[in-house]
């Protein structure tokens, strides 16, 4: 069974621009290529899981989501790094007129995308890690025994406030960015192997 690092997309690996449906607007954040390289080199699965309710809201189509992901793979490929999987949820429980308006089991903090990736890529979730810039990104980690890491890029800084105000469950680690998060993960894995 494999270990995975699950990464949120917007605000974690690319600049948060609010409902990104255009591949031209995809800007990869500093440190991301090095972070994914470390994941690749350590034979850990690099998996993106992302809520894309812009589809349900009618802002863009699934085809555009796929185009953004193709561009993402291209940009990373040019740097010699890769993702093992990209999973997205196009739904929203309350917004939008379409067939995408439903209470699904994939929209984070639900576990659908983690479970699907686990089945397809043979991932042991309990030994895996989840990185995101929102508390709802890392909440699924706690439910499956994985470790959750909040990054302070994207919405991360805003999320810090509610972390203190609402006595929410604390992340296993809070990192400035994804590279710091992955370095912590490698350290944590090393400790557990000793
Ligand atoms: Mg995000």
Question: Topology of this protein?
Answer:
Elements: E1 4-7, H1 32-41, E2 45-51, H2 62-78, E3 85-89, H3 112-121, E4 129-132, H4 135-144, E5 147-151, H5 156-165, E6 173-175, H6 178-193
Parallel strand pairs: 1-2, 1-4, 2-3, 4-5, 5-6
The structure holds magnesium ion (MG).
Residues 8, 10-12, 132-134, 154 line the site of magnesium ion.
Question: Any idea what the shape is?
Answer: globular
The CATH architecture is 3-Layer(aba) Sandwich
Low-confidence stretches: none
Bound chemical compounds: magnesium ion
Give the N-to-C terminal Cα separation: 19 Å
Q: What is the residue-mean pLDDT, rounded to a whole number?
A: 95
- Reading the helices and strands in chain order gives EHEHEHEHEHEH
The major beta sheet can be summarized as:
6 strands, parallel
User: What is the count of β-strands?
Assistant: 6
Q: Which strand order does the major sheet show?
A: 3-2-1-4-5-6
Total helices: the number is 6
Find the CATH topology.
Rossmann fold
DSSP strand (E) fraction? 5-15%
Derived from helix and strand composition plus strand pairing, the structural class reads: alpha/beta
Instruction: Specify the CATH homologous superfamily.
Output: HAD superfamily/HAD-like
Share of helix, binned: 25-40%
What count of structural domains?
1
Mind telling me the CATH class?
Answer: Alpha Beta
Rg (CA only): 16 Å
